[in-house]
Amino acid sequence: TTLGVQDIAHSIIDDSTVSITWQVSVAEGTPVSCALQAQNEAHAIVGWKIVDLPPSETFNTRYREVIRTTQHAVTGLIYRCWLT
User: What is the per-residue pLDDT across 17-38, written as a single tens digit (0 to 9) for each?
Assistant: First the structure.
């Protein structure tokens, strides 16, 4: 099964929270997990979350997740996704 992932957007909510939006492209009914991360200006990881996504009913599905950070982040992105 082929798995595609694309960062769509991120939003800095405040000094300890960032929102990440991304799209997963995978065969219908395939469960996926993704690791998300937030980075500060020095590109150090200041937030991290693993999200288990339920099997989707469509090939392309968008997701949005809010993650907590230990300090102000300047970006939020997908680290990696994998089939589960």
Answer: 999 999 999 999 999 999 999 9
Q: What is the pLDDT of residue 1?
A: 76
Q: Which residues contact 37 (CB under 8 A, 6 or more apart)?
A: 45, 47, 48, 49, 67, 76, 77, 78, 79
- What is the number of other CB atoms lying within 10 angstroms of the CB of residue 18? 27
Where are any strands of DSSP class E within the chain? Answer: 4-14, 17-25, 32-39, 45-53, 60-68, 75-83
4 CB-near residues (< 8 Å, 6+ apart): 24, 25, 26
**Alpha helices per DSSP H over 1-84:** none
